[in-house]
Hints:
The protein is α/β, with parallel strands linked by helices. It contains eleven helices and ten strands.
Amino acid sequence: MVATAAAGAGRRIDAVSADARLVDLLDGLPAEGRGGLVHSVHDKVVNLLTPDGLLCCLSTDALDDAPRTIRLPATAWARLGWRDGDAVAFSPGELRHRGAGRADDGTTVVLAGAARWQPPAADLSAVDVARLRHAADVLAGHLVPPAGRCPFEEASAAELARRTGVLGDALRATDVDAAAAAMRALIGLGAGLTPSGDDILTGLAVVAAASGSLGATALTALLAAVMAAPALETRTTAVSAATLAEAADGRARQRVHDLVATIAAGADDPTLAAAAQHVRAIGHSSGADVLTGVRLGLVVEADLREEALLARIPTHPKETL
């Protein structure tokens, strides 16, 4: 696929927003810049490899903020003429297209005026067990399998459910090693640019990263699963490997954070349903898989809180007889 080019050279595109961590990384490069390249081009995303081999992307601002992402105005998106394998110069505050075996289209993406994005922090400490379970039930209503699933997706659905159940049991037992093993079994499982198992782990991680959550086991286990040998990029797609690496630090697309924040705020059911549907709209099946992970996180959180509450209730001596 090739992004549509417009005539002319020396074009400047001012980014709308950019992941603050990515901006900091670019600001650490030498002033003369270093070379990277275009990894892959899609309708609304151009994936890039930085000089150090980090996968990041340009996207149209029709999409939401996300880790490792620089968003460009939709009106300027058609001006990109970048192709797979093209050279890109990365330097502090900008990216410059260099072409590859063809004319340089002269596009420079400027970050100076871009809003610096960081995922907002959610706090689940004030959400009681009943509300957590109710929110999980609301999300369940949006988990109808997408129409037109391919045979591979149909065949993998039962195995995804089984492995997700194993993960849930490990998290309830706060067994980091068992949880990490269950997560490794989910990585790369399913179809798509971001396989279903990876999307489930991403949704789970955002809940686990919220303040007031008892999800430390999930984040520790996910980091272990991501860092385990063989290299993550050999176990799933390059895009999904980047997504999981960020998820292990509790970072995902803005709309996923918005959903967890909506739950944390105790919003009414229509508001919660709208936030869930916004996540559900991601890709063909990715949204439903992310919702599955968020729901798993909520149910496990509720179970852990109930267990902790029971442990604090004193037992009368007569009740032990």
